[in-house]
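Q: Convert this sequence to structure tokens.
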Amino acid sequence: MIIKVDRTIYSDSCISKCIYWLSAKYAIQRISAGDFEEISIANIEDENAFEKDFWITLNDFKLRSIIQEETKDIKTILYAKAFFNNDIEETDLTD
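A:
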């Protein structure tokens, strides 16, 4: 079975994490083909179950990546306030 993944939508990091997450259950091979990545899976008893697991896991890691990017500035501010002894202004962090 081969699944094609659009690399303009899903980053290499998301694809790698997804494959790692599923590698305990499946033998998976990645083949880069330009803007697409071909994911080849061997010896699957239930192809529909794998495809469902694959897309759920891939979309989960994509969402985690989006949330991480969107909350990066908030985390930076919280870390800065937690580790600085003096009071700092938000404008000091964004300069």
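The longest strand covers residues 27-33.
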